[in-house]
Amino acid sequence: MLQVENLSGGYARSHPVIHNISFEVQPSEMVGLIGLNGAGKSTTIKNILGLLHPHQGTVQINGKTLEQDPTDFRSKISYIPEIPQFYEELTLDEHLQLTTKAYRLDPQVAKQRTEDLLEAFRMKKARKWFPGTFSKGMQQKIMIMSAFLVQPSVLIIDEPFVGLDPLAIQALLDLLQSGKNQGMAILMSTHILEMAEKYCDRFLLLHEGHIQLHGSLTEMRKQANRPHATLEDLFIETAGSDT
Amino acid sequence: MHTAPLFEERKDKSYLKAMRIVTMVAQGGGTPLVIGAFFILLYMGYSSLLEWLPTSFPTWIIIAWISSFFLTSNRLRTWIKTADLTYLLPLESEMKGYFRASIRYSIIVHNLHLLLFLFLVYPFVQLHISNFQTFLLMIMLLCLLQTLNGYMAWWEALLKPIRSTKWLRTVVMIRWMINVFCSLTIFKLYWIWFGIGFMGMFALLLFLKKQAPSYPLPWSFFAKQEQSILAKYYRIANWFVDMPQLPVEIKERKIGVRMLDFFFPSQHALTFLFIRNFVRKSEMISIIGRLLIWTSILMIGIDSIWAHLVLIFIGLWMTYEQLPQVTDQRFYPVWYRLYPIDSRDRKKYIRWFYAILLWGQTMLLGIISGWILHSFLASFLTIAWGILITVLLILFRKLHQ
């Protein structure tokens, strides 16, 4: 379980981007992190991953913080960034081998998962290629495959659908669903609200670094006093209110 | 629209930046001292080599061979950027002035490189080949060849979008072979044969000019080439000051990777990554390879155990200064920092990687030293010295991770 308590942080102490954010993501749950550009989604994610040091508050995975046990914390979490990031000197296969080694996965299990992922994302033919020659969507698939190879307890995804072809989107949704069924806690930042509404169990609507609405769609409708609103309606009303 | 001034502006800015870097290097710690020591040793080695080389040694073949590479390698300096594909593409038909200035500049610079090389080998020419007057004639002919090669490199670049890599490689190969032939005839003073070779080169020039289209310009190729030139300069400067990392060409180098995998079959995640980074990022391995070659040449030139110990120290230190480019987390994607590997393990595997490379270098240099000095003891001493330096560098220099 991912637990965030009173988290404030940003790039400079004098200008925090997020303020006293608290939420949790339970096992077998997918939570949608939504908000305008600059609302604080990426800052929240970076603080969870330990790429930024929180000004205040804590981030725990199964009750442990990064400081308490960095190796254990990191072995339980995987991240798919918005912009494709890869090692230009490694082939697709070697990316997956590196992930296997870094997370100390059982080689046989990792081998089977690798084959399944390559099949699901139709990347078998590209396994010996260097990703510098890939399209953006194919580069995105490397990150997705590496993250799902680990099968982490907590998965953080930032805008996962951008650049993916329809078959790859479906493959990703299937993986998310099966991950959820196996007990994965998923935090997904996205602007595709229709998709979020359909697949997420709960939502966090961030605006200017504060959580404006949170909970299931029904709970957020109550909070906003809009019983028939869609997620998009709530988003526009909340995020667009003072812009 | 006049586009030549844009080229001049970019060139001037680049020179200004280069001057700033050179100033920073000159002001940095013990760098001038190390460079000075390196040049003194180079001079001593060169003098010894001149004395040692018998007059019957075919120096002319070596000089002609090296000259042919200077003549054939004619990378155009264009200062074209990736963004130009968006902003300058609409001006493509008006870019003649820009590229004329670029060709002129590149030809001048390549001629200067060639002149510097000829100036350096002049003592050999004087001792083994000919007098000063003939040497001047040689210089003129080689510069003429260099200029023709410069124009041909431009037309080869224009042919990139429409011809296959194989076709272009064949053209470069033919050009290189004619350059070898012409250089050999120049340094052997076979003027008639040179005339025939020159005519062959001229025919190739006319052929390329006829084949090359005026448009489209190979923007992406120029941008990529420019990036690779910059990356090379940055990596050299990086020995002395911190420079930003530029994207460099990745080469698969299957054999190199397989060899290392064979010698080190069970690799940790980090060493798995470092080995591939080191072998495949082309600039890194070639810089360290060149460093090894230079150190070896200097050791051959100076047959003194003390000089060898100093050279091994300088060689290992300079290699060590390059290695953070393989292990520094700033040069890797975010995942590198997210792996569940604790900081002690990170340090351990970075040190392991450094030690393997530096000890490999030590072994090679130790063998060379023993061979030059005809002494097993010299090999033993230099290897022990190299191991000690490696340990000291790894333990006491700042470890970039």
How confident is the prediction overall: mean pLDDT of chain B?
Answer: 87
The total count of helices of chain A amounts to 9
Taking Cα atoms only, what radius of gyration of chain A do you get, to the nearest Å? Answer: 18 Å
Sum up the overall morphology of chain B in one term. globular
The CATH homology group name of the largest domain in chain A: P-loop containing nucleotide triphosphate hydrolases
What is the distance, rounded to the nearest whole angstrom, between the alpha carbons of the first and last residues of chain B?
A: 50 Å
Name the shape of chain A in a single word.
Answer: globular
Strands of the largest sheet of chain A, in order across it? 5-6-7-3-8-9
Structural class of chain B: mainly alpha
Report the portion of residues of chain B in β strands: under 5%
Keywords:
heterodimer, A: 243 residues, alpha/beta, 2 domains, three-stranded antiparallel β-sheet, 9 helices, B: 401 residues, mainly alpha, transmembrane helix (chain B), EcsB_ABC (chain B), ABC transporter permease (chain B)
Explained architecture:
The complex is a heterodimer of chains A (243) and B (401). Chain A is 39% helix and 23% strand. Chain A is an alpha/beta fold and 243 residues long. Chain A folds into 2 domains: 1-76 and 154-165 and 182-243, P-loop containing nucleotide triphosphate hydrolases (Rossmann fold), CATH 3.40.50; 84-151, no CATH class. Chain A has a 6-stranded mixed sheet, sandwiched between helices. Chain A has a 3-stranded antiparallel sheet with strand order 2-1-4. In chain A, α3 packs parallel to α5 and α4 packs antiparallel against α5. Chain B has helices at 4-27, 31-52, 59-72, 84-87, 96-129, 132-159, 165-187, 191-211, 219-237, 254-263, 269-280, 282-301, 305-322, 324-327, 335-338, 343-373, 376-396. Helices cover 77% and strands 0% of the residues of chain B. Chain B is an all-alpha fold. Chain B folds into 2 domains: 4-43 and 57-230, no CATH class; 250-396, no CATH class. Chain B starts with a helix and ends in a 5-residue tail after the last helix. The A-B interface holds A 49-51, 70-75, 77, 79, 81, 85-90, 94, 97-98, 101-104, 130, 132, 146 and B 247, 250, 252, 267-269, 272-273, 276-277, 280-281, 332-335, 337-343. Chain B: This is ABC transporter permease. Chain B: The chain crosses the membrane at residues 21-46, 52-71, 105-129, 135-155, 291-320, 352-372, 378-396. Chain B: It comes from Polycladospora coralii.
